[in-house]
Design goal:
With 191 residues, the protein is mainly beta. The chain contains 5 helices and 10 strands. The strands form 2 sheets. It has a 6-stranded antiparallel beta barrel.
Length: 191
Amino acid sequence: MFETLIGPQGHNSLAADSHASSDDPTHNHSDNDYSASGGTTVPITPELRTIIHQCLPSPQLIIPKEAKSVTHTYHLQTAYSIRKRHEGNSGVLFNGNDTPFSIERMLQFPADSNKQVLQGTWVIVRRHRYAAVSRDPYMEYPHLRMRMWDCALEPDLKAMPIECIHSHFAKCTIPWEGKNVAVVISLSRVC
């Protein structure tokens, strides 16, 4: 089971892509590199503004009218992608939280000399739903940091700065109690 969850399965695996920048000498990504190839400038809609505002560290921060929307980026030599581009690289856990989230969008706000203006890369995520199971056998082994979750995502969106991501997670869909569930394991302790 463990090998199924985290074992590399070729070039497109999470393990291969997540650390591509550190293994490929042609990549020039620094530890604080927020660059990504491509991307388009998009307006910050009222819905996005509300989602971002709920997670601001300071309510006085000004949210710009537009941002660059990207499908992938590197942060601290780790690849992150939106779910439509690469599901494995979109699965993240945030600091202090074992709930799995999936990155739906990435927004990059430009640097600004005014520190009251929102800057940096923000991810727009959806949370996995709780699995409706009577017994989760992985809960008996908390040191493994594994748990069953529903395969579906919540409809509500949440915004977080990319710096709040703790690690990726791996998931394996299995049948359990007559339904499919996702077994999720944190990759924070996996090299």
